[in-house]
Amino acid sequence: MQNKRSESDLCVASNREQSFPSSGNDGGIRRIGSYHLRAFGEVDTELVPSLAMAAGRALLCRPQSEVVSGEVKTSGKEETFVLTTPLYYVNAPPHMGSAYTTIAADAIARFQRLLGKRVVFITGTDEHGEKIAAAAEASGSSPSEHCDTISQSYKILWKELDISYDKFIRTTDQKHEAIVKEFYSRVLNNGDIYRADYEGLYCVNCEEYKDEKELLENNCCPMHLKPCVPRKEDNYFFALSKYQKALEDYISSNPDFLKPSFRLNEVQGWITNGLKDFSISRSSVEWGIPVPNDKTQTIYVWFDALLGYISALSEDSEQSNLQQAVNSGWPASLHLIGKDILRFHAVYWPAMLLSAGLSIPNMVFGHGFLTKDGMKMGKSLGNTLEPMDLVQKFGADAVRYFFLREVEFGNDGDYSEERFVNIVNAHLANTIGNLLNRTLGLLKKNCQSTLPYDSIFAVEGNSFKDSVSQLVEKAKYHYENLSLSSACESILEIGNVGNLYMDKNAPWSRFKQGGASSEMAAKDLVIILEAMRIIAAALSPVTPSLCFRIYSQLGFSKEQFEAVTWDDTRWGELRAGRVMAEAKPVFAKMENNQDGDKKGSSKEGKNKKILRQGLVEA
Ligand code: MSP
């Protein structure tokens, strides 16, 4: 691959690492270190900081706020937690891989809200570029019609999956375009954009030039297994190489920036190998944001889309402006991404932000892939799993729970329907659902569905409460560290401990004995129901609907459930006299396909499935 600067547009220079560019204009030619670049249009230099200042200031932006495990503590203000999913390409409707990041982000957002923070949960769609234009053409619609349709399909899926996002940004939104242009101008005015010829192998699916060394036989992209195409273009480039030292320093002095920690090694490896400038415009792509003052080029889709994390922060009602968006919550506390887009988020994006004088996000977490037969599930490979089918068949809670519990967050995970059904039945229907159901059944039979004791009194002198408290603490620790599977495991363990307790104490026989035994049995029921309430509060980030149904069965209203905070995972909320609702299964057992197939496609079989689903939704 070659990166040739065109001499007509800029002067070739040497020694570029040695000095940061000056910001002064020089009769149309900007003198940048030992480079001479043409000035690219009118930029308000008052607005734009010099590169040296920008890099320094961005790093120095921090002292006003203290970074605590991925969140920003702003003195005297409500704590804000801004988290983002990637903005999804709209070349095709969402698949389970895209849904996975969003489900995880939603669980984290809900957990942070339980902690009492002001959460801004950002998601959206990435709608420009060659890949999208080609998809629109193939579907016989205009790019904007195509984007409207696919973007909408994401919103529909998020609704079905109970995704509680606060902002949905589309990169075709006007406010976004204005902010991208302003950002571009800042970087330009910092002397970090120059024009050059580029020749290399391009993967349209990755929207990225590839290094030949990374490619498989026939120049195939290892991710998409499709040949990369040779391209030669005259583009604008971003001077990434200038930020080599700043990035090295940032990463080594912010050990929590990249998670899980094994991703850090990968990123450090890229940086140490030497950062190359990358092209940030395309002359051959019409479907994009025009480069300010050069209508012959559009802004490279990544240089455009990453800005969505900032433009999402601006209010729709406001005249969009970069600084105002930044003031509304930047930097993000957490970017949640898949490992394939780590380089863009851990290298390109921080350098772009430094160049524009903006703060770097607190944390980038690169999760693994959902795979099918060991290959990344993806739209380009066509080996996807339809999340809508899964939700319609099994319900949102089951889908959310399975992927968060089954896949260690950060690692890859394979899907199998058999495993899906087994896990969800065992954990949600049996451990949690049955325990609640049989306890409520006993309470109805023996105590008219009314709690005879305060839970705090019922548990006096009993170590059960301590076991629950320890497990809740563990769950909190895991949530905070984004170990979502371990958080689920700790909460489920409360259910296991509860089932063991019931089996050991057998309140059904104690009730028969009467007297003091009966009193002990009544206390046991209160203890289990309080544990169920705690499970519901703690698991609500993962399975919100199921947890609401548990709360309802325990006699709470929707408003009361919505007001739950992490403090409610403490023992003692259930009081004597509370009347429980009619016991209904909160989570119906699912059949796996094989069972369904055995029943054939008879009407009876189908109706049974629908009935079961109805029960789940009750
Ligand atoms: N548009 C870019 C992101 C721009 S962010 C400013 C993009 N889009 S994508 O639709 O291709 O991918 C979005 C996310 O989905 C990525 O984090 C990617 O890792 C994730 N996944 C896509 N397939 C996946 C799996 N099979 N498994 C898990 N996540 C995967 O990249």
UniProtKB/TrEMBL annotation:
Q: What is its EC number?
A: 6.1.1.10
Where does the Methionyl/Leucyl tRNA synthetase domain start and stop, copy by copy?
Answer: 215-440
Taken from the record, one Pfam family name reads tRNA-synt_1g
Specify the superkingdom: Eukaryota
Reaction catalysed? tRNA(Met) + L-methionine + ATP = L-methionyl-tRNA(Met) + AMP + diphosphate
User: Family assignment?
Assistant: Belongs to the class-I aminoacyl-tRNA synthetase family.
Q: What is the protein name stated in its UniProt record?
A: methionine--tRNA ligase
